[in-house]
Amino acid sequence: STLAASGNFPAPTPIRAAVELRERRFGDVIEGGPNTRYGDVWAVDREDPEAEPLGSESAAAVRRRTTALVRQLEEELPDGSTVVLVSHGDALQILQTAFQRVAVAEHRSLPHLEPAELRELLPVAPAGG
Fold first, then answer.
1. 3-class DSSP state for residue 59?
2. What φ, ψ does residue 85 adopt, rounded to 5°?
3. How far apart are CA 37 and CA 33, in angstroms?
4. Is the pLDDT of residue 64 over 50?
């Protein structure tokens, strides 16, 4: 189903570009080249999410910038607003860790995002509350 079909997509809808949603920087070794080295970066993420393997942006830095945007939108928009975030898989999967209360080092344990997939992100309540 789509947001438009669900009736939850207000019109007209403002579109805003946000640099916070840019793709994760994967460094000179990967940028523009074959995607065979992503696994090397993700393996380091599991060990140290603050590391910058092969010159890439750390998983923790991606989480900080994407969650900062979500906090900003929460402050700016009326309660109950529907927001669609469009980005690349790694950035969105890392953002999802914050909503799911999953360690950022475990971002690859979440289900893979398919191209143009809509995935609802709702915060998971803290354990015991």
1. helix
2. -100, 130
3. 9
4. yes
